[in-house]
C-alpha cells in the first residue's frame, strides 16, 4: 500500500499563517502544505518566497490558492484568518468580526475537508474554537485551538530566566482564556521534578509571591508589548503551532494546554478554554485535571465565565 502523505492546509496568508508554514516546513512536520487566502497576490508571493528556500528544508510541497477546494484531503486545517488585533485592543474585542468570517468559512471547509482536524489560531481563540466546533458539527475532540501553548511557553521562559535553569526543565501551565483572564497553575508547576512553590536551591534565586506576580504580569501583557512594537506577534505562535501539528501528525500523545470544549472539568461546562490535554492523531484525547488550590479553581471558573459571556453575546 502507498504510504500516507500528511497534508496541512493553512487558512490565511498573513504574518501568522505564513510563519506557521515556515516553522512547520523547517521542522518537517508534513509532506504537503496548502496556503489559502482570498488575496491571491499575497498568497502567491508568500508561497514563492517559501519555495525558494525549499532546498534548505526537509522535502515537501507547498501550494497557494484563493480557491478553498485546494484544502481537499487535508489531515489538519489551521485557521489563522481574521481581523488583526490592534494596539490596545483586547482579543475579545475581535470576536464579532472573526465570528462573521467563520460563518462563511467553516461550511465551505466542511464541504472540501470533512475528515480534517481543525486547529484554530484566530483570536479570540477560545471563542472562535467554540464557534468553529458548533458550525462544523464535528466532535469536540476534532476541533481545538492553540490556546495557551504560547502563554505557557512565555511563563516557562521567564521562570527559567529568573531561576537560571534550562527552560526545558520548567514544567508550568497557563490555563483558562488565552487572554486577560488566564490563570497560571503555580500549584502544579515543577522545576526538575521539584515543586516550584517549594523551590529552594543554594546559590539560586528564590521565587517569591512578588516575583510570581511580576512574571505572570509580563506573560499576560507580552502580546500587547509586541503588537505596539512591531504590529503583530508571529514567530512564537508560528513555532507553537508547528509543535502542536507535530504532536498531532506524529501521534505523540503529548500534553499541551490547547483550547477545547469543557464538559465537566472542575465543574466547568459548555465553553472552550485551555487546560493541559493529551494531544494525538485523533485530536484532543483527554483533558488532565491538575492539582489546583481554591484561588486557582475560582480563577478558572471566572475565566470560563468571561469566555462564555462573549460566546453568548454572539448568539452561540
TrEMBL record:
Entry keyword Acyltransferase: no
Gene3D superfamilies, per database record: Lactate dehydrogenase/glycoside hydrolase, family 4, C-terminal, NAD(P)-binding Rossmann-like Domain
Catalyzed reactions per annotation: (S)-lactate + NAD(+) = pyruvate + NADH + H(+)
Phosphotyrosine modifications at: 224
Chain positions recorded as beta-D-fructose 1,6-bisphosphate binding sites: 156, 171
InterPro entries tied to this protein: L-lactate/malate_DH, L-lactate_DH, L-lactate_DH_AS, Lactate/malate_DH_C, Lactate/malate_DH_N, Lactate_DH/Glyco_Ohase_4_C, NAD(P)-bd_dom_sf
PROSITE patterns: L_LDH
Highest rank taxon of the organism: Bacteria
Function summary: Catalyzes the conversion of lactate to pyruvate.
Protein name: L-lactate dehydrogenase
Organism field: Melittangium boletus DSM 14713
Amino acid at each position: 500500500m502507498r504510504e500516507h502523505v500528511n497534508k496541512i492546509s493553512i487558512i490565511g496568508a498573513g504574518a501568522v499563517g505564513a510563519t506557521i508554514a515556515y516553522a512547520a516546513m523547517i521542522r518537517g512536520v508534513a509532506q504537503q502544505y496548502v496556503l489559502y487566502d482570498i488575496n491571491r497576490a499575497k498568497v502567491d508571493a508568500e508561497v514563492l518566497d517559501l519555495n525558494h528556500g525549499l532546498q534548505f528544508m526537509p522535502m515537501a510541497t507547498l501550494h497557494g490558492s484563493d480557491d478553498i477546494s485546494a484544502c481537499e484531503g487535508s489531515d489538519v486545517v489551521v485557521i489563522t484568518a481574521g481581523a488583526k488585533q490592534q494596539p490596545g485592543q483586547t482579543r475579545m474585542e475581535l470576536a464579532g468580526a472573526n465570528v462573521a468570517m467563520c460563518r462563511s468559512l467553516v461550511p465551505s471547509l466542511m464541504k472540501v475537508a470533512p475528515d480534517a482536524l481543525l486547529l484554530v489560531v484566530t483570536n479570540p481563540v477560545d471563542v472562535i474554537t467554540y464557534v468553529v466546533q458548533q458550525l462544523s458539527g464535528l466532535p469536540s475532540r476534532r476541533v481545538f485551538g492553540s490556546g495557551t501553548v504560547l502563554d505557557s511557553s512565555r511563563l516557562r521562559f521567564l521562570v527559567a530566566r529568573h531561576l537560571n535553569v534550562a527552560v526545558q526543565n520548567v514544567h508550568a501551565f497557563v490555563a483558562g482564556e488565552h487572554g486577560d483572564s488566564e490563570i497560571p497553575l503555580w500549584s502544579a508547576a515543577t522545576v526538575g521534578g521539584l515543586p516550584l512553590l517549594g523551590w529552594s536551591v543554594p546559590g539560586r534565586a528564590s521565587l517569591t509571591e512578588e516575583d510570581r506576580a511580576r512574571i505572570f504580569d509580563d506573560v499576560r501583557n507580552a502580546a500587547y508589548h509586541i503588537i505596539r512594537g512591531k504590529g503583530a506577534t508571529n514567530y512564537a505562535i508560528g513555532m507553537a503551532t508547528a509543535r502542536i501539528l507535530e504532536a498531532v501528525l506524529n501521534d505523540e500523545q503529548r500534553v499541551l494546554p490547547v483550547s477545547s470544549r469543557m464538559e465537566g472539568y472542575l465543574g466547568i461546562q459548555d465553553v472552550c478554554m485551555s487546560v493541559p490535554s493529551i494531544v494525538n492523531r485523533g485530536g484532543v484525547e483527554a483533558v488532565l485535571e491538575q492539582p489546583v488550590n481554591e484561588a486557582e479553581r475560582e480563577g478558572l471558573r471566572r475565566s470560563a465565565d468571561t469566555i462564555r459571556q462573549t460566546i453568548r453575546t454572539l448568539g452561540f
